[in-house]
Amino acid sequence: MEDFPQTPDDDLKESQAVLDDYRSSSSNPEYTKGHLTPVCHQETLHDREATYTLTNIVPQRAASNNGPWSALEKKMLNKIKPHCTGEMYVITGAIPYQNERLLKERVSIPEYMWSAYCCPEYTSTPYLTYAAVGRNDPDSGNDIVERGRNSKGYDVKEMTVQDLENILERRLNMQIMLFRNKCIPTGE
After folding, report:
1. How do residues 141-169 score in pLDDT, each as one tens digit?
2. Which of 26, 69, 134, 157 is the most buried (most CB within 10 A)?
């Protein structure tokens, strides 16, 4: 894998995030590079290295990324993968603030993270599809994920894929179908 250029050209900086956007400063000390495709879900070194591209990264608060969200990623991997007899599909995304917030006035900061899992071929287990939404802002309202007492505000709500699709449809104002064909939710 080729290293990302240390000094990206202006065309690249205009179209996507660059490493400088994530460098800690007094204006953004709490944000980390939150992986959309988790490193822990990859089996080979090449696949793990591929997750470190900036196109797989969003600004995620450290307390979420290293806490409840990381725990969810590991929990889902351990809960679903042993029962998959074929491929396990994972889709992860971010829900932006309704009033955009930017990191270094360039990179959109998500209010919530979401993830959906599907295992179309599985052994005896109740998990065919699964989903969750996690807070990336402890001060967000309770409209998507309620704030718990012991979570410091970075709660993760587990749900069905259909419930996640409904949340995304309401927030993004568009029809959403996360999985097709064999991954269509059945009896969640």
Report:
1. 888 998 887 678 899 999 999 999 999 99
2. 134
At residue 17, the 3 state secondary structure works out as: coil
How far apart are the C-alpha atoms of 155 and 7, rounded to whole Å? 37
Please answer whether residues 91 and 116 qualify as being in contact, where contact means their C-beta atoms are separated by less than 8 angstroms. Answer: yes
d(CA 107, CA 130): 29
Measured in degrees and rounded to the nearest 5, phi and psi for residue 100 equal: -45, 135
Residue ranges in 51-183 assigned as alpha helix (H): 62-65, 68-80, 161-172
What's the whole-number average pLDDT of the chain? 84
Cβ-based neighbour number of residue 125 at 10 Å: 12
Q: Are 151 and 133 in contact (CB under 8 A)?
A: no
Q: What is the pTM of this model?
A: 0.84
